[in-house]
């Protein structure tokens, strides 16, 4: 199983890396040429370019693994999603929460302008980190003395953002684990705070700063609560790569920014109260295995990400073929005084190599569509079938 998975995941990983570098290069060119002339024109272009990369990851969760994301919210909020600026505040339940947010942003039409507050080290990651930097993500060092001015200036830059954006803020500061929950419970007991059961205690400084600087141009806070039903295994990046499905329940409550209190201390307490309410909501979800207080909205599964990943596969493989031709790997060398038999043999080898690479592209595309439309995502029989033919490309024909 591991060998079969690697035979497909590794090529797809290479395709993501190569296509990501192409996206980074395009972003860099527009950053140098367009942004100095018009920042908002650059932002509109970058939104489209960045989406070409993020859609590959949406495909991973949507089509490859077949993760089912169920959104519970009222109809009015559902129709406003993607049509307004929003500060997104969520509990940090799993290591794919950011991907869940991207899926919701993609359904709402604002994937290219979905932003987040990230660790400073993230921006140095090739492909993803570089694209985030070009897209104006906010990078912090987790030291308030250093981050206060950085956060303030970053938030102020968003004031004239030309299209609706979401800014995600995980105020718990880290992913939920039982060990961290135990530490949070001990701290709450020692300070007289409500003892959490399903969430961690929020760190309010960043939230207070965000509200303070965004209050005048961001109309809403999206209070998101993520839960995993009892019947579903918890989603992880490893499960995604293996193509293993999960179910994620998302509860979204729209809160008006203008209804928040004015003072910093009151805003900090408001954030803490919001997480106390989240805790109670998760208790109710644990008992009922659903969010019964909100409507289940139909978010669908658009084919856009499937078309984008398929296009990238074709472009990258065809580009590789062209590169090999330019490097004369697929072209017979011009040797002096070649005999007709030698020339004929080299031409047969060239033709064979081209056919083998074409067959590889064909079976990779077949598997891509097979796994995407399979109800279970990763199909072992199909993988073994593909691996057999990939092996035949380099050892000889199997028919």
From TrEMBL:
Signal peptide: none annotated. Pathway: Phospholipid metabolism; CDP-diacylglycerol biosynthesis; CDP-diacylglycerol from sn-glycerol 3-phosphate: step 2/3; Lipid metabolism. It comes from the Eukaryota. It comes from Acer saccharum. It is an enzyme of class 2 (transferase). InterPro entries: Acyltransf_C (IPR032098), Plipid/glycerol_acylTrfase (IPR002123). It catalyses: a 1-acyl-sn-glycero-3-phosphate + an acyl-CoA = a 1,2-diacyl-sn-glycero-3-phosphate + CoA. Its EC number is 2.3.1.51. Residues 86-208 form the Phospholipid/glycerol acyltransferase domain. The chain crosses the membrane at residues 6-33. GO terms for cellular component: endomembrane system. One of its GO terms (molecular function) is 1-acylglycerol-3-phosphate O-acyltransferase activity. The keyword Transferase applies. Keywords: Acyltransferase, Membrane, Transferase, Transmembrane, Transmembrane helix. Belongs to the 1-acyl-sn-glycerol-3-phosphate acyltransferase family. This is 1-acylglycerol-3-phosphate O-acyltransferase.
